[in-house]
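Section 3.1 - Work completed
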Amino acid sequence: MKRVSLLVAALALTAGGLSAQSADDIIARYLRAVGGAQRIAAVQTLRRVGTFYGGGGFEAAVTQENKRPNRVRSHLTIQGMTLIQAYDGRTGWRVNPFQGKKDAEAMGEDEVKSIVEEAEFDDALFDYKAKGNTVAYLGTDQIEGSQVYKLQLTAADNGDVRTYYIDADNNVPIKLEIRRTVRGAEQELEFVYGDYKEVNGWYLPFAVEVGPKGGPAAQRNKLAWQRIEANPVIPDSRFAMPAPGTPVEAGEQAAAPAPAPPARAPAPARVPARAPAPAAPAVVDSETFAGLGARNIGSAAMSGRIAALAAVHEGDRLTLYVGAASGGVWKSQNGGTTFKPVFDKEPVQSIGAITIDPTNPKIVWVGTGESWVRNSVSIGDGVYKSTDGGETWTNMGLRESERISQILVDSTNPNTVYVCVPGKLWSDSDERGVYKTTDG
């Protein structure tokens, strides 16, 4: 019996060693297939120009510029307006005309996490040990009839888990799944790659799709790069956040001639383009481009009006919560310098009241529904409560109230809360008045 146990242990150790070695072998073949470390290192800047296809016929011109080691700037232009977002290696910023902004503003913490990924010049698998990442070999699988190797990478910097599906014949990724935590909630996205072409000796995908993991292919957002340039001259200042009032150049910088490429490596077999026709509908979400925030465009639903404001000192830091008439709740932890949305997952956006528990700054009460009803988006669905500073919310009731104008928390007994529900303008018999709870 002892011999059997020793044999099982020896086999387990051997299998573990083979898995680790197999992962490194797969990565090495992937690196060779796309051009090799030397050719990749010879590319210092990249400029991608193409088209983004979203849902409902949504289409936009897209440009993305990358520079080693970790700088990125992207433009998305729709109907003459250009969203700009960039990361200079330390600070993420954006100019969002779709929210009426003309000056550059700093990104929130969650948005920076996403743009840092876009700033990665080399795949996280390459030289992963030096970066502190860990990689596990998960065996093989099938994707649309193609045999693939599965590798799972856990990022050292943010804990994100990436699962790569690498085509066994061509040795290039055809799908990538990313699992990350955003505002306390786990999100899973999948990227599908195709149409690999050579750019200065480096093979890059010219077709990319992105959407929630497991979602229908027709609902993925799509990027079709018309051209990718290697080594255009892009100054570092291109990625730096402009000072307030400084005009932000939305166009491309003039491209300098790229140096002659080294001798071409044997081309990997072309992976069929996996991006379907642009006409297919897709869903636009905030993960497509960090900070896009494509919401409330139009005079009827545009926020424009601040309906509620609450603030509290947490040590030397001033925390603000701002409720918009039709734009949700926004939180700032630096006295209003930057804000991030904290109410986007709830089924309502109109806000009428915000109150912070005077005994605990992490407990926040929000009353939905604008007091001065203007249109259909002014309607709410009751009172919400957060016990973790806006990361998660629970509906506490009064769903039929439609609008909340004020919430008060008893400072001597925070379980006692008063909620004011104004009478509806078109009926005296509807729910209205002041409500009181004594159980929080």
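Second construct:
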Amino acid sequence: MSNLSLTEALSKVRQVFNVNRVLQDFSRDITVPYYTQSEYGYSKFHSQRDCVHLALNEDGIFSEEGYYGQPRTVSTQIQAIGARQVLELGSGKGFNSSFLAQEHPEVQFQGVDLTPLHVSIANKKAASLSNLTFQVGDFNQLPFPNQSFDLIFGVDCLCHAKEAKIALAEIRRVLKPGGRLVVFDGYREPGFDQRSEEIQVTTQLVEVSMAVVNGFDPLEDWLDAAETVGLNLVEKRDLSFAIMPNLINLQRLSQRYFRLIWRAKVIKWFLPKYLVGNAIAGLLMPYAFAVDSGPLGYYLLIFERID
């Protein structure tokens, strides 16, 4: 992690950004403009392979191979239950489903995403794959009949749900009996309200700068919502340690932006609001997801539909 203390990092953010103005985006629907404006930053600084999620590097060393960690886990689940119809929620630019469609040519894959730009990019990538299609869609109101899919997965996307219970009920509706839901995402750890003001503000800045504008759900609340709608928890695994190499790499990139405050202020005026706002998340995420002590955790959750 950076040799900057959290206090020093927050000071840099405050010198460049009006924190109160940034936090005004809480509870605003900015998912589509965020990902549209951030496309250049994601493709240049995050992944040139059209990946928009965090890498899993369990060996502690950042490598872009870590971006395949999530889809490889999904692949294992596809094999475990013999899935033939698979849906990806928040499919982005098609990285995960394109990989899986090539690994499993006998399985039909469908992706839905809110951002038209992402869907357009994904469909171009999938043009040669007969078992994969993408469409614009909202996982709060999925455009599919009841019990359509054997397996549904979402990587770093369900945090954008307006209300977890609504999204989870809709997922269960289109999931076949015995079907599975695989989720990779961030959640607030217990005791958030008892944290210091500094760490709460840090967390909120990370959340809103990543368009998680309702804040990450408390993990236990999210698990309770899943149980309430009829999804049984099969596996829970804390992977916060595995994303840390990626977070540290992103922090190093963000530090370049904040190195000269006057220059950072100038750049801010010329770049799209949500694109430049990623520098805030990049600088602060390692503090928010700090292993064993951070207010946020990154988890793999696997559920099975209960009937």
